[in-house]
Write a structure and sequence with these properties.
The chain has about 240 residues and is mostly beta strands. Helices cover about 5% and strands about 55% of the residues. It has 2 helices and 15 strands. The protein has helices at about 70-75, 145-155, and strands at about 30-40, 40-55, 60-65, 80-90, 90-100, 105-115, 120-125, 130-135, 140, 160-165, 170-185, 185-195, 205-210, 220, 225-235. The radius of gyration is 17 Å and the shape is globular.
Length: about 240
Protein backbone atom coordinates (compact mmCIF):
# COMPACT_ATOMS: atom_id res chain seq x y z
CA UNK A 1 0.00 0.00 0.00
CA UNK A 2 1.41 3.37 -0.95
CA UNK A 3 1.56 6.38 1.30
CA UNK A 4 3.47 9.70 1.20
CA UNK A 5 6.73 8.33 -0.08
CA UNK A 6 5.07 6.54 -2.98
CA UNK A 7 3.89 9.86 -4.30
CA UNK A 8 5.66 11.09 -7.39
CA UNK A 9 8.49 12.50 -6.19
CA UNK A 10 11.61 14.86 0.18
CA UNK A 11 23.99 16.12 2.95
CA UNK A 12 24.61 19.50 2.93
CA UNK A 13 21.88 22.08 2.67
CA UNK A 14 18.65 21.61 0.71
CA UNK A 15 18.40 24.02 -2.23
CA UNK A 16 14.89 25.36 -1.83
CA UNK A 17 14.35 27.95 -4.56
CA UNK A 18 11.68 30.51 -3.69
CA UNK A 19 9.58 32.95 -5.60
CA UNK A 20 8.49 34.98 -2.57
CA UNK A 21 9.21 35.04 1.14
CA UNK A 22 12.58 35.61 2.77
CA UNK A 23 11.94 34.28 6.28
CA UNK A 24 14.20 31.56 7.59
CA UNK A 25 12.61 28.16 8.17
CA UNK A 26 12.07 27.36 11.83
CA UNK A 27 13.68 24.15 13.04
CA UNK A 28 11.20 21.26 13.01
CA UNK A 29 9.52 20.22 16.26
CA UNK A 30 8.60 16.58 17.08
CA UNK A 31 5.04 15.49 16.29
CA UNK A 32 2.81 12.52 15.52
CA UNK A 33 0.16 12.65 12.78
CA UNK A 34 -2.45 9.99 12.02
CA UNK A 35 -4.04 9.65 8.58
CA UNK A 36 -6.86 7.74 6.95
CA UNK A 37 -5.88 6.20 3.60
CA UNK A 38 -8.53 6.04 0.86
CA UNK A 39 -8.49 4.27 -2.50
CA UNK A 40 -11.10 5.41 -5.02
CA UNK A 41 -12.86 7.10 -2.11
CA UNK A 42 -13.02 3.97 0.08
CA UNK A 43 -11.02 3.52 3.33
CA UNK A 44 -8.23 0.96 2.88
CA UNK A 45 -5.72 1.75 5.59
CA UNK A 46 -4.23 3.87 8.33
CA UNK A 47 -0.93 5.73 8.31
CA UNK A 48 1.12 7.26 11.11
CA UNK A 49 3.75 9.90 10.43
CA UNK A 50 6.14 10.72 13.25
CA UNK A 51 9.03 13.14 13.70
CA UNK A 52 11.42 12.70 16.61
CA UNK A 53 14.82 14.08 17.59
CA UNK A 54 17.85 11.79 17.31
CA UNK A 55 20.53 14.00 18.87
CA UNK A 56 23.41 15.98 17.37
CA UNK A 57 21.05 18.07 15.25
CA UNK A 58 19.59 14.97 13.58
CA UNK A 59 15.98 13.77 13.29
CA UNK A 60 14.10 10.58 12.54
CA UNK A 61 11.03 10.92 10.29
CA UNK A 62 8.93 7.78 9.93
CA UNK A 63 5.84 6.82 7.95
CA UNK A 64 4.08 3.58 8.91
CA UNK A 65 0.99 2.27 7.13
CA UNK A 66 -1.23 -0.77 7.48
CA UNK A 67 -4.06 -2.11 5.34
CA UNK A 68 -7.39 -2.15 7.18
CA UNK A 69 -9.87 -2.57 4.34
CA UNK A 70 -10.32 -3.94 0.83
CA UNK A 71 -7.50 -5.80 -0.87
CA UNK A 72 -4.87 -4.13 1.34
CA UNK A 73 -6.38 -5.83 4.40
CA UNK A 74 -6.87 -9.16 2.61
CA UNK A 75 -3.17 -9.44 1.75
CA UNK A 76 -1.97 -8.02 5.08
CA UNK A 77 -0.19 -5.10 3.45
CA UNK A 78 1.99 -2.88 5.61
CA UNK A 79 4.91 -0.57 5.00
CA UNK A 80 7.50 1.26 7.07
CA UNK A 81 9.66 4.13 5.88
CA UNK A 82 12.22 6.02 7.92
CA UNK A 83 14.34 8.99 6.97
CA UNK A 84 17.22 10.20 9.08
CA UNK A 85 18.07 13.79 8.32
CA UNK A 86 20.17 16.65 9.63
CA UNK A 87 18.64 20.08 10.11
CA UNK A 88 21.16 22.14 8.18
CA UNK A 89 20.94 25.55 6.50
CA UNK A 90 17.27 25.76 7.59
CA UNK A 91 16.20 22.61 5.71
CA UNK A 92 16.04 18.81 6.32
CA UNK A 93 19.05 17.22 4.57
CA UNK A 94 18.71 13.45 4.17
CA UNK A 95 21.38 11.18 5.62
CA UNK A 96 19.59 7.85 5.09
CA UNK A 97 16.28 6.41 3.93
CA UNK A 98 14.86 2.94 4.64
CA UNK A 99 11.76 1.40 3.04
CA UNK A 100 10.14 -1.95 3.88
CA UNK A 101 6.96 -3.38 2.33
CA UNK A 102 5.31 -6.56 3.61
CA UNK A 103 2.27 -8.52 2.40
CA UNK A 104 1.15 -12.14 2.22
CA UNK A 105 2.72 -12.58 -1.21
CA UNK A 106 5.40 -9.91 -1.55
CA UNK A 107 8.11 -8.17 0.39
CA UNK A 108 10.40 -5.37 -0.71
CA UNK A 109 13.17 -3.32 0.81
CA UNK A 110 15.16 -0.27 -0.21
CA UNK A 111 18.06 1.45 1.47
CA UNK A 112 19.57 4.78 0.52
CA UNK A 113 22.43 6.52 2.27
CA UNK A 114 24.16 9.84 1.67
CA UNK A 115 27.84 10.29 2.48
CA UNK A 116 28.45 14.05 2.84
CA UNK A 117 32.23 13.50 2.91
CA UNK A 118 32.45 11.74 -0.46
CA UNK A 119 29.39 13.37 -2.02
CA UNK A 120 28.04 9.94 -2.95
CA UNK A 121 24.59 8.38 -2.70
CA UNK A 122 24.31 4.59 -2.38
CA UNK A 123 21.02 2.84 -3.20
CA UNK A 124 20.37 -0.87 -2.57
CA UNK A 125 17.09 -2.61 -3.44
CA UNK A 126 18.35 -6.14 -2.85
CA UNK A 127 19.58 -6.62 -6.40
CA UNK A 128 22.99 -5.08 -5.95
CA UNK A 129 23.89 -1.60 -4.81
CA UNK A 130 24.21 1.35 -7.16
CA UNK A 131 25.55 4.83 -6.59
CA UNK A 132 25.47 8.34 -8.01
CA UNK A 133 26.65 11.82 -7.12
CA UNK A 134 24.75 13.58 -4.38
CA UNK A 135 23.30 17.05 -4.74
CA UNK A 136 23.82 19.41 -1.81
CA UNK A 137 20.84 19.15 0.50
CA UNK A 138 19.23 16.23 -1.31
CA UNK A 139 15.90 15.07 0.12
CA UNK A 140 14.15 11.73 -0.42
CA UNK A 141 10.62 10.74 -1.38
CA UNK A 142 9.59 10.04 2.22
CA UNK A 143 10.66 13.43 3.59
CA UNK A 144 9.44 15.39 0.55
CA UNK A 145 6.03 16.43 2.01
CA UNK A 146 7.76 17.59 5.22
CA UNK A 147 10.36 19.58 3.25
CA UNK A 148 7.60 21.32 1.32
CA UNK A 149 5.59 22.06 4.47
CA UNK A 150 8.59 23.60 6.24
CA UNK A 151 9.30 25.74 3.18
CA UNK A 152 5.70 26.98 3.10
CA UNK A 153 5.85 27.83 6.80
CA UNK A 154 8.80 30.14 6.10
CA UNK A 155 6.82 32.03 3.45
CA UNK A 156 7.83 30.29 0.24
CA UNK A 157 5.28 29.86 -2.55
CA UNK A 158 7.46 28.08 -5.11
CA UNK A 159 9.88 25.34 -4.12
CA UNK A 160 12.47 23.30 -6.01
CA UNK A 161 13.59 20.17 -4.16
CA UNK A 162 16.44 17.87 -5.26
CA UNK A 163 14.98 14.41 -4.53
CA UNK A 164 17.14 11.29 -4.52
CA UNK A 165 15.44 8.42 -6.36
CA UNK A 166 16.66 5.04 -7.58
CA UNK A 167 19.02 6.13 -10.33
CA UNK A 168 19.76 9.77 -9.65
CA UNK A 169 18.49 13.11 -8.41
CA UNK A 170 15.33 14.77 -9.70
CA UNK A 171 14.96 18.54 -9.41
CA UNK A 172 11.27 18.51 -8.54
CA UNK A 173 9.30 21.75 -8.58
CA UNK A 174 6.19 22.59 -6.56
CA UNK A 175 4.06 25.70 -6.23
CA UNK A 176 1.04 27.03 -4.35
CA UNK A 177 -1.84 27.17 -6.81
CA UNK A 178 -4.48 28.70 -4.56
CA UNK A 179 -6.41 28.51 -1.30
CA UNK A 180 -9.27 26.06 -0.77
CA UNK A 181 -11.56 24.90 2.01
CA UNK A 182 -10.75 21.28 2.86
CA UNK A 183 -12.77 18.98 5.11
CA UNK A 184 -10.97 15.97 6.63
CA UNK A 185 -11.57 13.90 9.81
CA UNK A 186 -9.39 16.34 11.80
CA UNK A 187 -11.65 19.27 10.85
CA UNK A 188 -12.31 21.88 8.17
CA UNK A 189 -9.38 24.04 7.11
CA UNK A 190 -8.60 26.93 4.81
CA UNK A 191 -5.62 25.32 3.13
CA UNK A 192 -2.97 26.21 0.57
CA UNK A 193 -3.10 23.81 -2.36
CA UNK A 194 0.31 22.72 -3.67
CA UNK A 195 0.87 20.97 -7.01
CA UNK A 196 3.91 19.65 -8.84
CA UNK A 197 4.70 22.07 -11.64
CA UNK A 198 7.61 20.52 -13.56
CA UNK A 199 6.02 17.20 -14.61
CA UNK A 200 2.30 17.08 -15.32
CA UNK A 201 2.35 13.29 -15.74
CA UNK A 202 3.27 12.85 -12.06
CA UNK A 203 0.35 14.43 -10.29
CA UNK A 204 0.88 15.68 -6.79
CA UNK A 205 -1.88 17.58 -4.99
CA UNK A 206 -1.47 18.45 -1.33
CA UNK A 207 -3.31 20.82 0.97
CA UNK A 208 -1.28 22.49 3.73
CA UNK A 209 -2.08 24.71 6.69
CA UNK A 210 1.59 25.67 7.13
CA UNK A 211 1.26 27.90 10.18
CA UNK A 212 -0.45 25.04 12.03
CA UNK A 213 0.95 21.76 10.64
CA UNK A 214 4.27 20.94 8.87
CA UNK A 215 2.64 18.10 6.91
CA UNK A 216 -0.45 18.17 4.65
CA UNK A 217 -3.98 17.89 5.98
CA UNK A 218 -4.80 16.10 2.71
CA UNK A 219 -2.74 14.64 -0.10
CA UNK A 220 -3.66 12.78 -3.28
CA UNK A 221 -1.74 10.99 -6.03
CA UNK A 222 -2.52 9.03 -9.16
CA UNK A 223 0.69 6.99 -9.50
CA UNK A 224 -0.24 3.34 -9.09
CA UNK A 225 -3.82 4.05 -8.05
CA UNK A 226 -6.10 6.82 -6.87
CA UNK A 227 -4.95 7.24 -3.26
CA UNK A 228 -5.85 9.96 -0.79
CA UNK A 229 -4.57 10.55 2.74
CA UNK A 230 -6.68 12.63 5.13
CA UNK A 231 -5.49 13.93 8.48
CA UNK A 232 -7.25 12.38 11.47
CA UNK A 233 -5.21 13.81 14.33
CA UNK A 234 -2.03 15.72 15.05
CA UNK A 235 -0.20 15.99 18.37
CA UNK A 236 3.09 17.15 19.85
CA UNK A 237 4.84 15.69 22.90
Amino acid sequence: MKTFSRLPALAAGLALALATGNALAASPQPFTAHYQVLSDGQPVGDATVKLSTAGNGEYSYSNSSKGTGGMAAMIGASSEETTRFRWQNDVPATLSYEYKLQSSFKSKQRHMSVDPASGKVTVDEGKGAGSYAAVPGMADRNSLPLAIGLALASGKRTVTVPVGVRQGVEQQQYKVTGTESVQVPAGTFKAEKVARSDDGSKRFDAWYVPQKYPVPVKITQADGGDLTLQLVSFSRP
